[in-house]
């Protein structure tokens, strides 16, 4: 397995700050990123992969000393869907995160303390605008593709509309063209869990006790939405944890309870509570129909689209993207719509390697061959 390391790009130094969607100016900004494969001579084989909510720049390969590869290693590498023998793959950590890019836990150069809640509210568009500066820095004028699942898919949609001249294709997986009431509600429960933790201290917990209980609970809630009824039943059923009968108390009786607790506790070790608040809010603000109809929004888009959903995904069910596909077709845009049979729920895009590769590999090969401009 390939050894990789994160790199860092800093931009938007005052007085050239990034103008956010809110109108606020912000900088400097640092983005952590990783690359896989080799950029060809005319820089025409670059693919940007966008991560989901809790993801990071480490999409594939191994860091020195690690035993676990990047979050999409099943899809990125030689002879995989994003074949690094053919393509130059880039993944950057989003603005507002806590995995090397500038976010609430970053030191504010003006105060010498972490930003906390003084960090500005950012949107998916702001994240994409920062990514565009990174791509410009790498000297890439047109990306062969931008790809991502879940929150990564939201970024892909923004790329296709705001930088249509900069991408040849878009791979949109397990996402929605806007967050609906149920999706917002689920995120809000997680945010309230964090803010109700006394250790949150209105976001000023750095160097003190972190809001571990609230963040763990938020992750437990979120993780339930990533799985499906079938996958949970198959994995856990009503199995008990290290006992033969229920205890008739409030200790952990069932394996599924223990699993969720493990997921919550482990998440606390690797993610920042404030970043969780900011990123989920950015997702909830996302709406491709905010100013125009969906058809009008994509009227200037020139990229070819591959839209993939999964049958058991109840967080972003397949029917939600039917309107997107219809809008793309109405604009006579090259679009391939695939619904993959899977029992893994929303997490299927992180698990279903074979089925996704079967679709993505020929799609990218076609784009590379047909779209030489």
Structure in words:
The protein has eleven helices and 14 strands. 34% of the residues lie in helices and 16% in strands. It has two domains: 7-178 and 288-370, Alpha/Beta hydrolase fold, catalytic domain (Rossmann fold); 184-281, Rna Polymerase Sigma Factor, Chain: A (Orthogonal Bundle). The strands form four sheets. It has an eight-stranded mixed sheet, with helices on both faces. The protein has helices spanning 124-137, 151-162, 181-195, 212-226, 229-235, 255-268, 273-285, 294-297, 322-330, 348-351, 353-370, and strands at 7-11, 18-19, 25-26, 29-36, 46-50, 76-77, 82-83, 88-92, 107-108, 113-114, 145-149, 169-173, 304-310, 335-340. The two termini are 34 Å apart. The chain is of the alpha/beta class. Helix 1 (124-137) packs across helix 2 (151-162) and helix 3 (181-195) runs antiparallel to helix 7.
Residue share in β-strands: 15-25%
Question: Which consecutive residue ranges, at least 5 long each, have pLDDT under 50?
Answer: none
| Biggest sheet statistics | 8 strands, mixed
N/C terminus separation: 34 Å
Count of discrete structural domains: 2
Name of the level-1 CATH class of the largest domain: Alpha Beta
Task: Supply the CATH architecture of the largest domain.
Answer: 3-Layer(aba) Sandwich
Task: Using brief descriptors, characterize the structure shown.
Rossmann fold, two-stranded antiparallel ribbon, 2 domains, Rna Polymerase Sigma Factor, Chain: A, alpha/beta, 11 helices, single chain, 34% helix, 373 residues, 16% strand
Provide a short characterization of the protein structure.
The chain has 373 residues and is an alpha/beta fold. It is built from 11 helices and 14 strands.
